[in-house]
Fold this sequence. Notes:
Layout: H1 2-14, H2 16-59, H3 62-67, H4 71-88, H5 95-113, H6 122-145, H7 154-174, H8 177-209, H9 215-241
Helix pairs in contact: 2-5, 2-9, 4-5, 5-9, 6-8, 6-9, 7-8, 8-9
Protein name: Bax inhibitor-1/YccA family protein
Organism: Erythrobacter fulvus
InterPro entries: Bax_inhibitor_1-related
Amino acid sequence: MADWNDTSRNAQRLGSVPRAGGEVxxxxxxxxxxxxxxxxxxxxxxxLLTGIxxxxxxxxxxxxxxxxxxxxxxxxxxxxxxxxxMSFGLHKMSQGTLNLLFWAYAIxxxxxxxxxxxxxxxxxxxxxFFATAGAFAGLSLYGYTTKKDLSxxxxxxxxxxxxxxxxxxxxxxxxxxxxxxxxSGLGVLIFAGLTAYDTQRLKMQYDQLRGSEFMGKAxxxxxxxxxxxxxxxxxxxxxxxxxxx
Length: 245
């Protein structure tokens, strides 16, 4: 025991103990960066796939044909079904199945979003997309780097999303442009907040998940969360910046 204490004291004098701690911290930081980059890569790839599918569907005339048929309701409601299946079946599905559903969801969402090309000009859609990308990057960076605990905003933001859904359904009957403008403004703010909140939440989850078999599934579900934040913020922002055909 005496020899161990002497060795420890000598190591502290030489600075080898802090180096060991630094190595552990370095490995932790490296693992965290790898985990978050995997989430961002999945999310960015899904957004790209959605955009490509939307462009192809719009340019081929499929979007126009779909808009005039009952198929539009299937395509619009299908993404919700995918999200529910992935959320409720998370622990029962294999990672491969979850991965397949994630990419299928991105494709179906592309078909659903292809109809925006029938309403807005391509230029305004592109401008809004890049504006959303810039805002998303800044908000996600804030969520990743801030020392402020954003967890307290989670319940408030989720309640805001539920309120947006109810308000949107009510406005289907009211058809009020002023009410739609208010909904769009609140939607941008709520999903901007969720972008920062979800980024911090995913970062904090790494402590609990690292080294576990669930890590792969967590990456996919984390990418899904950020993907939803991006797409919804884009859609609400498009109602402000989009020029109608």
